[in-house]
Write a structure and sequence with these properties.
92 residues, single chain, mainly alpha, 3 helices
């Protein structure tokens, strides 16, 4: 199976595009502090999935999936900071 067909990988690409589209609307200080970290952590979710996907050993793939999961936790942290600092508002 090709990585492009995995729904979780597709979802991460959609989410990272949404995050990018929002962050580029922020003012400079918000972009430079929270925004850059948010984009990096969100992009890292899919990047780690892709890096581990075709690894020869199952254990290597598993490690990259752990990294991906932790990047998702980091992204959640940055989203919470952005919400508290007001560059973003909840989606209704």
């Amino acid at each position: 199976m090709n990585l492009q067909y995995l729904r979780i990988y597709q979802y991460t690409n959609v989410i990272t595009d949404i995050i990018w589209d929002e962050v580029i609307k922020w003012n400079y200080i918000a972009q430079d502090t929270v925004g850059k970290q948010l984009i990096r952590s969100a992009d890292s979710i899919g990047a780690n999935m892709a890096e581990g996907y075709r690894r020869f050993h199952y254990k290597e793939n598993k490690n990259f999936l752990y990294y991906s999961r932790e990047s998702a936790h980091e992204t959640k942290c940055w989203l919470n900071k952005a919400y508290k600092r007001k560059p973003i508002t909840p989606i209704s």
